[in-house]
Design brief:
mainly alpha
Length: about 140
């Protein structure tokens, strides 16, 4: 007897509905609703862009060409969708804040090095299996 491994029903990863599985689709995760198919395609595209530099460049070139053929599209879109602009602005503020915080953390970490005085130091490895080394620390002034 051949074991039937095909699922008869699947739970859509987007809308959560239980729908009959399409036997022609391997590892089906989404139903056939337009919104769910759009989510599936966007997810596929995002992962493809992340993993395939050629595809990413092709998409960028294609988008550039489209922008050249449709001048003013984004300007009009922003005018007609002020909610989108407001949301975008808020998200950008959050990203800027996060980046600034990261940079200040890096700066703080670097400031610890400014406390080191130039001179000759013994370098002791953490594992202490090796002998100590002697090394000179020369502080290079910032330009
Ligand atoms: Zn769905």
């Amino acid at each position: 007897m051949v074991k039937n491994t095909m699922k008869t029903m699947i739970k859509c990863a987007n809308c959560g509905r239980m729908v009959p599985a399409n036997p022609r689709v391997k590892n089906q995760k989404y139903c056939n609703r337009k919104a769910c198919q759009r989510v599936r395609k966007n997810n596929w595209k995002q992962s493809k862009i992340a993993s395939d530099p050629d595809y990413k460049n092709d998409q960028r070139d294609c988008h550039k060409q489209w922008i050249e053929k449709h001048p003013g599209y984004y300007r009009n879109y922003r005018k007609q969708n002020p909610d989108y602009c407001g949301r975008n602005r808020e998200l950008q503020k959050k990203r800027d804040k996060k980046r600034r915080l990261k940079q200040s953390c890096k700066r703080d970490a670097l400031n610890h090095f400014s406390d080191i005085k130039p001179g000759t130091y013994k370098l002791i490895p953490f594992n202490r299996k090796r002998d100590t080394l002697e090394g000179q620390i020369v502080v290079i002034p910032r330009c």
